[in-house]
Amino acid sequence: MGPRSGRGPFSPLRLYFTAGQHTVRHWDTKTGQWGEFVRQKTRLTGLTVDPDGRFVVTLGGNSAYIWGLPDGKARGELKHPLIVSGAVALPGGRLLTS
Question: Are 26 and 15 within 8 A, CB to CB?
Answer without folding.
Answer: yes
